[in-house]
């Protein structure tokens, strides 16, 4: 099936959490959406079924973004199915708490593999593939500004992503493709809740003047703005979407 009448978006890590809401929002905005995931096939297929139930088009594709061959296959399947690609949102990511100790270097390696190497691979393929007036959107985190103990591996990976975004924006000079990052504050997803007590969750929620967590749809709305026609003059930026957490 090849259809070039609709814009097409690829969202990594769209089986759950923030990525799922990005997939729903972009589908509602008229994009055909590739729903990438790592292991949760049933959840990804449900996201596609929900998009189709609303009259949209979707495709679930398993691919580990840290694996170069898998990322190549992900983009090939996207083009084979939808015939074009207009927006790539590299939302997939992992977070594991680990203090900076010798024993924890494996957690650094794993985190960098998914969050930084994965961003490199997806952004590289996106740069090769997206159409003129296209969009590349990566994911950082507002926790970069907090330097909390235990976040070393995660913050290192996201600092790297912010660097890549600005360099790629410059490398795409003349191509009319924007490259930006969204850096959410704490958002109510499994990634955030994992391993935290209720007290810890509330303390972190209270960091923002709104004294609550962000919701996935509030991040999806910002991604949709960047991916849509009104986002065309925002380039090389990191948008901190966190309810005012400083
Ligand atoms: P979740 O843990 O809720 O969801 C993670 C998603 O990424 C799942 O769809 C998962 O697929 C997928 N995924 C994980 N590893 C890989 C991989 N190697 N290849 C492909 N897909 C993968 O995370 P969130 O929705 O909370 O986070 C989304 C992004 O937002 C991340 O980049 C995160 O760092 C960032 N962020 C999140 C914040 C928060 O508080 N939640 C705050 C700031 C930033 P599967 O279901 O198959 O496992």
**How would you sum up the major sheet?**
7 strands, parallel
Low-confidence stretches are: none
Give the strand order of the largest sheet, numbering strands 1, 2, ... along the chain: 3-2-1-4-5-6-7
For the record, the count of structural domains works out to 1
Q: How many angstroms does the end-to-end distance come to?
A: 47 Å
The number of helical runs is 8
% residues in beta strands: 5-15%
**What small molecules does the structure contain?**
NADPH dihydro-nicotinamide-adenine-dinucleotide phosphate
Under the CATH scheme, which class? Alpha Beta
Q: Approximately how much helix is present in the residues? A: 40-55%
Task: Indicate the radius of gyration in whole angstroms.
Answer: 17 Å
CATH architecture label name? 3-Layer(aba) Sandwich
Which structural class is indicated by helix and strand composition? Answer: alpha/beta
* DSSP strand tally: 7
Principal-axes geometry comes out as globular
Using the coordinates shown, work out and report the CATH topology: Rossmann fold
Task: Describe the protein.
The chain is of the alpha/beta class. The chain has a single domain (8-241), classed as 3-Layer(aba) Sandwich (Rossmann fold), CATH 3.40.50.720. Helices cover 44% and strands 15% of the residues. It is built from eight helices and seven strands. The chain has helices at residues 17-28, 41-53, 68-82, 105-129, 152-171, 190-193, 198-205, 216-227, and strands at residues 8-12, 32-37, 58-62, 87-90, 135-139, 178-184, 238-241. The chain has a seven-stranded parallel sheet with strand order 3-2-1-4-5-6-7, with helices on both faces. α1 packs parallel to α2. It is globular and about 45 Å long. The model has no long low-confidence stretch (mean pLDDT 97).
């Amino acid at each position: 099936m090849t259809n070039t009448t609709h814009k097409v978006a690829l969202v990594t890590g769209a089986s759950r959490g923030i990525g799922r809401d990005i997939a729903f929002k972009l589908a509602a905005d008229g994009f055909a959406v590739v729903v990438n995931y790592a292991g949760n096939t049933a959840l990804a297929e449900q996201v596609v079924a929900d998009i189709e139930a609303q009259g949209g088009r979707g495709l679930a594709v398993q691919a580990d973004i840290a694996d170069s061959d898998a990322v190549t296959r992900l983009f090939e399947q996207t083009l084979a199915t939808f015939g074009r690609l207009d927006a790539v949102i590299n939302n997939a990511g992992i977070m594991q708490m680990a203090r900076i100790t010798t024993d924890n270097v494996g957690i650094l390696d794993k985190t960098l593999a998914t969050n930084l190497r994965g961003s490199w691979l997806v952004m590289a393929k996106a740069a090769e593939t997206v159409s003129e007036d296209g969009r590349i959107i990566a994911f950082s985190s507002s926790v970069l500004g907090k330097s909390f103990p235990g976040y070393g591996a995660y913050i290192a990976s996201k600092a790297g992503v912010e660097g890549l975004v600005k360099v790629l924006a410059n490398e795409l000079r003349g191509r009319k493709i924007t490259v930006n990052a969204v850096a959410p504050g704490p958002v109510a997803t499994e990634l955030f809740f994992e391993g935290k007590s209720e007290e810890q969750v509330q303390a972190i929620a209270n960091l923002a003047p709104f004294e609550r967590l962000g919701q996935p749809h509030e991040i999806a709305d910002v991604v949709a703005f960047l991916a849509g026609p009104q986002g065309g003059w925002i380039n090389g930026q990191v948008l901190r979407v966190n309810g005012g957490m400083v």
